[in-house]
Each structure stands twice: as structure tokens, then as C-alpha cells.
Description:
Distance between the termini of chain A: 40 Å
Number of helices of chain B: 13
Low-confidence stretches of chain A: 269-274
Largest sheet of chain A: none
Structural class of chain A: mainly alpha
Mean pLDDT of chain B: 84
Helix content of chain B: 40-55%
Oligomer: heterodimer
Distance between the termini of chain B: 94 Å
Number of strands of chain B: 11
Shape of chain B: globular
Largest sheet of chain B: 11 strands, mixed
Helix content of chain A: over 70%
Shape of chain A: globular
Largest interface: A-B, 62 and 60 residues
Order of helices and strands of chain A: HHHHHHHHHHHHHHHHHHHHHH
Number of helices of chain A: 22
Number of strands of chain A: 0
Strand content of chain B: 15-25%
Amino acid sequence: MSLVTALVAFLVLFPLAMLVFGSFWTARPGFPGTFTLANYVNAYTDPDTYRILLTTVVLVGAKTLLAVSFASTLAWIVTRTDTPFRGTLEILLTVPFFIPGLLEAIGWIMLLSPNTGTINVWLKSLLGLADAPLNIYSLGGMIWVMSLGSTSFIFLLLVNALRNMDASLEESARASGAGPVRTAFTVTLPLVAPVILGAGMLSFIRAMDSFEVPVLLGMPAKVFVFSNRIYAAIQYDYPVNYGLATALGVSFFALIGLLIFVQNRILRGKQFFVITGKGYQPRIVRLGNFRYVTLGVCLLYFAIGTALPLSQVFVGSFLRVFGLPRWDLFTLNNYGAILADATLWRGLVNTFVVCGAAALATVLLCTIIAYITTRTTYAGRKALDVISWLPWAIPGIVAGVGMLWAYITLPVRLYGTLALVMIVLLTTGLPLGVRLMSGVMVQLGMELEESSRVHGASWQYTFRHILAPLLKPALAGAFLLLFVNFSRAVSTTILFVGPGTELLAVSLFSYSQAGKYEVVSALAIVLMLINVSGLVVARRLGAFGDAARF
Amino acid sequence: MNMMDRGSFRICVLTALSMLLVACSAPPAASPPTTAPAAAPPAPAAKPPATPAAAAAQAAISQPTAVTPLEQAYAKLYPAAKQEGKLVLYGVGTPDLYEPIRAGFAARFPGIEVQGVDQRGRDSREKIVAEQQSKNYVADVVISGTDTQAELVSLGLTESYVPAEIDNAIPGLVPPGGAMSPRTLTIFTIAINTTLVPPDQEPKSWLDVLDPKWKGKLAMDDPRGSGPGGTILSGIDYVFGQEIEQKLADQKPFFATQAGPIWAALNRGEYAIFLSGGHPDLISNRKAGAPVKQIRPIEGIGVTPIGQSMLKNAPHPNAAKLWIEWSLSEEGQQLLANQGYAVVRKGIKAIEPEASLEGATFLPRDDDNTKFQLIPERTKRWDQLFFKAP
Lengths: 550, 390
């Protein structure tokens, strides 16, 4: 256990230390300079910093609440009821997770921009309005787009947890006369509270430093978020000042600490054992005719939340000019360009190999960490839990730089290798992985493990033959989530890829920087199809547990 | 054929060889003007030949071929570069633009594998700093805007190299000391949506965009920091005075940190006028069928030089130098022009009119040092003016 703690501490605290050092130094670490407090003075004597932090908290809080509401409802419908076509629905509701956030935002801009947004134009003519009723460039627009982006992520987190719950608790509530909705709120909801809370927290924290969407939609609305501030520190200063960006990032740490503290207080002392030693079958709740209402809810969400923006991306991938749907601009060249780009193919192979291996390593390490923090009395478990959060407490733009500075000081030559890319990914995946596995670990009753140990089985045997099979769906779910997250990572990995170590997300980013949304759309569609097919195959093979087969 | 006597023959061969040796070892920086031949032919002691063929043969033996400094550089660098076998470039741009350039170089100099990485200047900068600090040298040449170049130079991470044909570059674009070699320019100027801006309403002066009819219809890159937005805004500041900034702010322009979303919006007609449209994107959108057109106001256009530097301790220094030489040569520059780049070499005709520098007027431009000093003050002012909520 100390070995694991030492490893995690190294992965997380070493780059963090470099960044913190840099925030007190007038030059980059390793270059001549002097000690300075100027970055902290700049960061925290500027009233703008606090105003922006508040705006960010409000924005991210609102979008998280909305996303958690959507995701919980949808996850419950899809996993705990007899809603028809729920297997297909589950796949459909996962689709947005595979589309880059920037592209979704661009899709919504095509729909809701004030002058030429498709929906606005249609509403104006339908209702005879002079001005567009909806404007994507507003706080509301930002909350809308960001919440949709988070919903599928939280949905994925929740489905696994909900699917493998013991249904007898809900059934006894129903048998006692409670309706399905009441049962959901009074029985199901409290039981999955730790998972929902954990998912909500993850989504909140990740979104605190989200950049592309809020900056794109917020700038015209003059709504500025934390990322604007960090970006300004890096982009508008010459020479570049990562020290200021890190000094600003310190306020993140305070926030994370607060959130962890709050979560621990809320969940303290409560047991959530629903996977117990008693034989159980995850059974679903029968809704009667209400199940058509739930089907309608899912379809409505899919139509508005996913199909609409995706349609812009899909159509855009067949156009020579993105956003200009004219028959004379129809083309297959965007797909052709993807096929012809050797770098992209190399990137695809690299992504699958590297992100797959990194996701596997991360899942294994995080399972061990989660076990230590939730099921042992190891003295350092609280510290381990906190350290595993920290990679997300560092703004993405500076996290990559911190890791770069850290690893180039080592005598081992890691720079330029895929191994370093894996290490970087693993580090950034710790918060998600540990949360995922902890959320499941707290659901496992202790008696299964205890009876195994009482009968003389070693810890390894118990883990392999008792815990691992129970955890299999969660492990598969965690692997998938981490894999997709890794394959989308840009701001941290961009500094570690080079000739021969290309990654798809970075190539996609280059294309979008160049404004070639047509090609980016085509690439996104191809990737989405690959990922969704992979998901379907994995489910059929039972990766997510028998209850997930359809 | 008349035979030269053996002694004279030996003298001629020796003289020719020594001329060649001298030509090959001459430093490129000391190269004379391009058109002058490098070596004066020695006077042969042979009797005049009887036939033209004999004359040619005798000339070949007795006189070395006249070589330009560029060819000398090629002759010196190519064998060594071929031995190195590889070249790593940072900042090459998207594959559709880069691939023909790479292919052109590979065809001209077979045996050198060129690996290009498409990334922004600031990512190149971070990687190069890390590589140099850890002595893990990967990149040979970095291609980027002048900010990245200037910062790397100030950190002492580049190696000066002046290509043979430097005097063919447009004056004023060549920074002193050879730290950066100019390669291309990006032109930034007004781009209009022709559906929304009919020919009789096209702006002729920068002042025309202040017409109230364009309120809410203008778009621009975020001018803070360095970048095309700042280049345009500071340029028109110099021409009209800073009062113009408030008038522009009153037009409520749309800002973005990337040009991509602005182009998507302009193509579609969300906005009518893009003030800092880069010419490569404009050409690419126009050719794809978007209703866009470049406008060059009378007061001038903005330009940003994109140059390249060789890095210190480059793993393939000869290949790097060969690339820099070739980039500025007529062949290299023509190939770039064919891709739609605006090139720095005099006399190369642009393929697309939007890339042409013929007869162009430039907006006033700060040199790098001045610009970097003015950035903080300008950023603060523009922040207040354009980005503060009312």
C-alpha cells in the first residue's frame, strides 16, 4: 500500500511541484531568474479574478445541476424500467460523448446564432418575429450546450451503477404501494446518491477549466470564465508567464479541497451496500403504460439534445464549406482527405494502442487505490484519496507544461516516447478512475470478502475470484470512459506527441485550429461510428455484465 | 583532337580541383551577389582545339562549371544531409498545404526523410525549450510567426544561418543577424461576404467599416496579445489615431480567439465583414465555394512574416541548412506560392490574387521588440474597450 501511495504521489506531486516552483520564479524552471511573489500578487489583488471565479462557479454549477437531472432521469429509465428499446436508447444517449465538444458547440452555433441560426430563422418566420428569439451567445446558451455535453458523461457513469443494483428494495417499496416515481425518489435515489454525487462532482470540477465552449460562446456575451483568465496569462504576456497561470490555479486547490470535504461530510457514516452476499437478480421495475411516456422522454431528449447538433456535424461533413448547405457544395472529399492523410492513420493506430494501454493501466491502478481508500484502514488512505483528485485541480493548459518540466529533469530519457504519453494519460485519468471504482467499491458489501478471508483465502485469491467478477461491469465501464477521455485529450498530450507518436485528438485539433470544420466533422463522424460499434460489440460480449446484453 | 601535353593537363586538373575545393568550403554567409559566377576560369596552356566538340571537352577539363552561391551551398550540404538521412520540422501546417512542399523537397533531394509536425508556435516553443533543457534534441527547424522565433532567439536556443539567396527577399522582412530566415507572409485584411456586401458597398477605406449599417455585422480576431487582430488594430491606430478604437467598439464587433468560427460565420452570412481575415483561409474558403472576397483598403493591409530558424544542437544540421536554403530558392518559393502562400522572394508571381504582394501597401507595423513592449498596455486598453460588460 505504501508502494502504491508513493507511486501516485510521484505521478501527481512531482509535476505539481515544478509548477508551484515556477509560480515563484521569474523565469521558467531551469533558466536564470529570481524568487518572486509577483504572480500571486497579480492574481489575487485583481478584483477580476474573483468576479470571474464566481461567474465560473455559477455557470458550472448550473450546468452540472441540469446535466445531473437529465442524466439521472435517463439512466433510471434505461436501466431500471421496462421501457421499450432501452438497449438502443442507451447507445443513442451515449453518442454525444464521442463527439468533440468544440464541434457540438459549432453545431449549436449553426442552429442558434442570432442572424442565420437555422432554428432562429424558422422561428422568426413561423411566429412573425423581427428579432431572433434565441441567442446561443448568452449565459443561457453556454449552460445549455455545456449541460448537454456533460449529460452523456454522467449518464455513462450512472448506468453501470444503477444496472447492477439489487431490485428487491425497490420491489418491496412497490409492493407496499409506492408508485414508480415515488419509489425512484425515496428508494433508488438515496441508494445511488454516492455515485450521483461523485459523478456530479467530477463533472463540476472538470468543467471549471473547460475552455473551448465557454470561450467561444461567452466572449460575444461578455461572460468570462476562469479559462479566459488562464488563457490571458499565457497568451497575452510576452514572454509567456506560466507562473501567473499556476498562481491562479492555486484557487482551484482550495475549491477541490472544499468539495471533497463536503462530499465526505454528506456521506459520512452511511452504508450503501446493495451488492450483498444474498443471491440477487437485478430486476427491472414494470411501469405499465407509463413506459411509453418514458420512451417519449428519452426520444425527445435525444432529438433535441443530440440529433439536432449532430445533424449539423453530419451534414457539414459532406459540404465543401461547413455551415453552407447548398447542393452545389456537396462533396465526399472530406472523407477522402481523411483516408489520404497518413498522419491520421498513424494517429488512429497510436490512439488505440496508447489510449487502450493507458486506460487498462489506469483502471488497474485506480481499482487498487479505490480499494485502499474505501475498504482498508491504511493510515495514508485519506491522503491517497486527496492526491488522486489533484490532477484535475490543475488547469489543463498548465498541467501539460508541469509534466513536461518534470519529466525532462529525469535521467531516464522519456521525452518523445509513447511511454511518456501513457504516463501523462494515466496521471490525468486518476481522478476519474478512482472516483469510478470508489463509487462501486462502496456498494459492495463487506461480508463476501470477509467470508472468503475467514475460509483462509489470501487477499489476492479473494480479489481474483470474488471481487473481480463482481467488479467486471464497473471495470469495463471505467475502461471505456477512460479510453474515450484519453482519446480526446489534447491540452495535456499536445506537448508530448511528435513524429511517430501522433495522436488523433491532436491532429483533429490542428484541423480545427485551421478552421477546417468540414474535415473535422468527417473525422468526428468516422470516430463516432468506430467508438459506438466498439461499445455495441463490448456490450454483446457481456463486458458490462449480463444485464447489459440485449 | 589535339592532345595537351601531359604537364599542362596535370596543371589544369589540379587547378580545377582546387577551385572546386575552394568553392565547396566557402562559408555561405560570405556569398557574393547571386548572379556572379564563383570562380574565374584559369587560362589553359593548351593549343586551340580543332572542333567544337573538342572545344567543349577541353573547356570541361580546363574550366570548372560556373556555380551560383546557392548551388555551392547545395553541393556542400546535400551529401552531408543525405548521410544524416532525416529532417524534423516543427510548425508545417495542415497536410494539404504541407505535403506538396515536402514532396517537392524530397524530389529535389532524395534520400532525406522529412518529418513535419503540424503545431502552433507556442506548442513548438514549449517542446523546443524542453528538448534543449533535457538535451533530448528532436527538432531541427521551427517554422512559426515572429513571436515564437523572437522568444527562442532570446532564450539562446537557435542557431544563426543566413541562406545564400537572402538578398532576394523583400527588404524589411529580414531580421538582422540571421537568427530567423523569412519564408512566407500571411496577409490579413478585410474579407467580406459578397451576398451581404454588394459591389457598390464594398469598403474602400478602413474608415468605411465604421458606417452604422455595419453595426453588429463586423467580426475580428481577439486583438489582445499578439496575433492578426492586434496587427490590424495597431496598424489602423497608427494611421487614424487611437480615437478610432472607440468608434470600432461602438460597432459591437464579434470576437473569437480562433479564426475558424469566424470564417464559418462569415461564409454563412452571420457577419458581413471580417476585419482580420487571413489570406490562406480566404483562398481556401473561396475555392471551396463560399461567397467571400478579399478587400484591400487604400491605407494598407496587415502582414505577419512566418519565418524559420535552425535550432541549436539540431540532430541533422546539414539537412536543416539545406531546407532553409531550398525554402528561399526560386524553386522552393514557387512551390510555396503554388500552395497559395504569399512568399518573401522578389519576383515570384502569386498563383492566387489574394496572395499577391505586387503593389501592395502595408499598414504601419511595429518591429518585434517595440511590439512586445507595447503589448501589455494595448492589451489592457483593448480589454477595457471591447471586453468589459457594460
